[in-house]
Structure formats: structure tokens, C-alpha cells
Amino acid sequence: MSEPRLIEISPVTRVEGHGKVTIHLDRDNNVDEARLHIVEFRGFERFIRGRLLWEVPVIVQRLCGICPVSHHLAAAKAMDQIVGVDTLPPTAEKMRRLMHYGQVMQSHVLHFFHLSAPDLLFGFGAPAEKRNIFEVIRENPELGRRAVLMRKFGQDIIEATAGKKIHGTGAIPGGINRNLPIETRDAFLAQIDQMTDWAQDALKLARDYTVDHAELVQSFGAFPSSHMSLVRADDGALDLYHGVMRAIDDKGATIIHGMDYNDYHKVFIEDVRSWSYMKFPFIRDLGPNDGWYRVGPLSRMNTAKFIDTPLANTAHSELRALTGGLPNNTTLTTHWARMIEVLHCVEKIRELLHDDDLQGTDLVAKGERRHEGIGVIEAPRGNLIHHYKVDENDQVTFCNLIVSTTHNNEGMNRAVKDVAVKHLSGQDKITEGMLNHVEVAIRAYDPCLSCATHALGQMPLQVELFDADGGLIDSVAQSV
Amino acid sequence: MSQPKALLIGYGNPGRGDDGLGPAFAERVAARNLTGLTVDIDFQLMADHALVISEHDLVIFADAGLGMTAPFRFDELTECVPQNMGSHDVTPEAAVALAQLLFHSAPRAFVLAISGDCFGDIREGLSQVALANLDSAEAYFLNWYAEFCADIKPAAPMDTVPQTPG
Fold this sequence. Notes:
The complex is a heterodimer of chains A (480) and B (166).
Chain A: E1 5-10, E2 16-17, E3 19-25, E4 31-38, H1 44-48, H2 56-59, H3 68-82, H4 90-122, H5 133-139, H6 141-162, E5 171-172, E6 175-176, H7 182-212, H8 214-219, E7 226-231, E8 244-248, E9 254-259, H9 264-267, E10 268-271, E11 280-283, H10 287-290, E12 293-294, H11 297-303, H12 310-321, H13 334-353, E13 372-379, E14 382-390, E15 396-402, H14 404-407, H15 409-424, H16 432-443, E16 448-449, E17 462-466, E18 472-477
Parallel strand pairs in A: 2-16, 7-12
Antiparallel strand pairs in A: 1-3, 1-17, 3-4, 5-6, 7-8, 8-9, 10-11, 13-14, 14-15, 17-18
Helix pairs in contact in A: 4-6, 4-13, 5-6, 6-7, 7-13, 11-13, 12-13, 15-16
Chain B: E1 6-11, H1 21-31, E2 37-42, H2 49-54, E3 58-65, E4 72-76, H3 92-103, E5 108-115, H4 128-151
Parallel strand pairs in B: 1-2, 1-3, 3-5
Antiparallel strand pairs in B: 4-5
């Protein structure tokens, strides 16, 4: 009988930011505890205080280099409220939506093709040197080329609507600062059929993987949970840009129905645990044990009654049929959900490009000044909340952000534990492939653990195994 | 050979202190409107940079550097071996390898790593040390680029650059 051991995976590879996983084994080599720790610096709320409301939608993009557009739009929505605007001019709302669909599309494409495809195509336990995007491309160069070109399409839409790729200025309090020129629109329209075809192909890949690996999908990081997202206010459709909050439990019963997101702070509360900097949100009335929930693409498939674009809606129906219309509580089906959203975004982009409002000139609305504003959107990784208070000098006095990865904190920890127990327990030797199973579970949520610095010279992943006395008995450097 | 079609990619997060060295360098160079040089600024190097890389004859990657003894390093990438990639940790080598693999075109590529001092905090602006290093790197690069375009051949890779005062 051996001594209890502690395994650390730090930082997690192919995940944005810094995190580490610790796995405690008991004397029989069974997993006793497994946790995802977020070594995150939460200084942004303090950083934003004192800033002028006009500059907030630009500055918040510095929070994250992966999804700056999500923060840009959530902050702009909050500032709309502060400048007293509840309804944007059609051109402004549609330009923002176009920006958002471009962002979600390119983010999902990056995740699926470049981060998850190696695991899905070669297997979670495949040799590390095989399990990377370059091997995927060697076997299927067209897949890699499409991924780059689809991402470029999304990035180009962001640039056309936000002004530039980095620190975009498009969304401003009360509206937008540009429309879409005809020639730019036509350039996008010329590519839209191709994007639709490629999105459908990608969707089929993700769908086939899920169906062909049903047994794995049903057992890998699968556990009952509630789900939460925005849905469209009048009919419960999927809406990534705006709507009301809806939460359901693991059986599909409604917990929160059509709640105005301005009331989020009355319903959600954040718990603190000593071993992670990241908070654990839960629904106040249900308490921390029962009130936690998941967010993200699969949660959105669960909460949305339908999708208002035909191709994505057909795919949504098929995904829902897999569980007889009940919520899908797996982890790996998230990839399928993500690709449904890519197709939805492409369909919405097409719809918007044919809308003359994008060439409108009424860009900004005005209203009566308020002192508090809340903006919520569905970011690629899930629900994103921005909340600000601004004083009479237009300076921010209060800021609270709840990002998707924070919403998913409990869910990711449960997934880590589930996978660790199933794949590591009772093993005499823990291999890199086994540890990758844990990372696959985390990666499925596409966590963005805050925009880490990424300067040249940083350390690769280190996996360290300690004995009961804290002595290092094994160390593995993961590929990066 | 005619004027090379050159690309400078400066990347990093200006909201994270000296991590903004890459964008700061790129902004300075962009302001000079150097002949034949396109400047791209981004939060990070991504897989899709492979496309634009493949469309140029020469690419310079500018990023902040950690743990360096010199103000900056300027090296040619001689072997771009495919590596694994993360959502934010695509290396210059991987980006060039991806350009070759996907679009069958890999330009000559150089990496400029400018030594930073203060990372991690959410803070705008560069440290005094980083600013001094940025000055040194800019001066070196402008000379190098002028010579490169004149000769269409590279300067010797610099492994170590003497510390500059202040």
C-alpha cells in the first residue's frame, strides 16, 4: 500500500490564462479529490474605477485578448443604460449584432479546429506528439485551411464593425460610430455561401463525433446540473446578443423564467472558496449546493426553445432529440453545440448583410442620464455580465464583472473530478495520456482564465507528483 | 531582387504592463511609414496569422521578453518546427510552420524580443526599463531594416546586445 499522492497539472495547456489542477490520490491510488484552481489576478474591477464612462467599452477589451469583443459589447450595453438609452437605432443594434456574430463564429472555430480537434480525432490518450493541430493538418490539410479562412472571415467582420482588431471603438454608449459600406458588405456576401458550406461540414464533424462516441460522451464529465443563458424575450429563442435570463434544472424544469437581467444581483450570488481566486456563483434561493449551474453553448441549446435560423434550428432539434428533449448534461456534446452556433452565426451574418439598415446613418440615440448600468450578452463561452455605477463627473465608481468561466467554475470542477475518478483511480502509473483526459474535460468548456501575459520565455506545462510528505517523486513536462 | 513585401506583427496586451511592448514597438514603427512594411498589431499571435504571413516575403515578430539579460534579442528563425498550440500561445515558429503547411509559403522570419520588467498586473503603460529597451530595439531595427532593404540580405543574428544606459 503506497502513501497518498498529490498530482499537480500547472498551468493547464491549451487553456487561456493560468490554472492548475491538483489531484489527490489516497493510499489505494483512488482519486480522493480533484480541483481546478484558478491562479487569476482579479484586479480589473479596481482598475476600471475612476475611468470615464465613454472610454470603458474600449478599455475593457484589455481584460481579455481572446474575447475582447464580448467585453466591448457588454460594457457598451451597460453604458447605453447610463446614457439613458434603452432602444438603439436599428443601424446601431444590427452593427453590434454583426460584430458579435463575427466574434462568436471565429472564437468557436478556433476552439474546435485548433484546440479540440487533436483530442477528438486522435483520442484523448494518444501520444502527446501526435495530439496537436499540425498532425491534424497533415492528415487533413483542407480542414486546417478552412479553419484559418473561417476565422479570418470572422475577424474581418470584427474589423469592419469595431474599427480594428485590437481596441475596437465601434460600440459607443448609445449606439455605434460607423455603418457598413456597400463595398464591404458585398465583399462579405461574396464569401457567405462558402462559409455556410464549411460551417455545415464542421457541424457534421462535431455531430458525427458525438453520435459515434455515444458511450464515451455519456460517461465523460456527465453529471446533472442546471443551465442558464439569455434567451429572446418574446419567444425563448436563442439570442446571443440580448434577451432575458432563463435557467432550468437538470430535468428541464424552469428555475428562472424571463428575468430582466438588471435584476441579476438579486438572484445570483458569488461564493468564495479558499483554494481558488475564482468565485463560485449560484442562484441565491437554491443555495450553493443546489444553485450552481453551467453556461455556454450546450447550456444555450438546453435553455433555448428553438433557433431562429433554419439550418441551425434543424441541428438544434436533432441535438435535443438525443436526450428526448430533456437537458443534455454531458460535457463533450458541447462541441456539437458550439458548431451549431457557428452555423447560426453564419446564417445571422447573411441575414444582416441583406438588411439595408446596416447602411443607415442614424447611429446614436440619446436619453436622460442615469448612474447605473448593466450589460449582459452571451459570449462564446457563455453568459457575461458587466455592471457599472458612474458619478456625476462621468467617472466609474463601481464595477462588477461575472465572466463565463466564473459561471462555469463549479461545473468545470465537477467535470475534473468525474473524469479523474473514472480515468485515474486505481492506476499504479499515471501517464500523460491519462492526465490529458482531465484537460479534455476542462477544454470542453473553453475556459478563458483571464488574459494572461504571454511574453516569450514562459514555462511549459509541468505535471508534478508528490508523495505524502510533499516530496517530488515524478515530474513530467507537457508539450505546449 | 525588388523591395521585399515585409510584415511586422507586434503583439501583446497593453493593459498588462510591459506585455504591451510588442504593440508599442509596432505603433512606433507604423508611425514611420517605412517603405514596403505593413504593420499588424494584435493581442496575441493566432493561427490565422498564418495566412497573412504566407503572403509576405519577410516577417518580423515583435513581442515582450521575460528573463532576458539584454535589452532585446533579434534572431532569425531558422527552423520552424511545428509545435502544439494554445488559444493564446502560438509561437512565431508555429505560425510560420502553419503558413508553410497550409499555404505552402513561408517567408524569412525574425523575432524581436524586447525585455520587459513588469508583467501580470492590470496596468497601462510601460515601465522605465521597458521604455529604455524599446528605444534601443527601435534604433536597432530601423538600421537593420534599412540595410536589409538596401542589401536584400540580413544582418547577422544578434544574440546579445550591450545594455544601454538608463
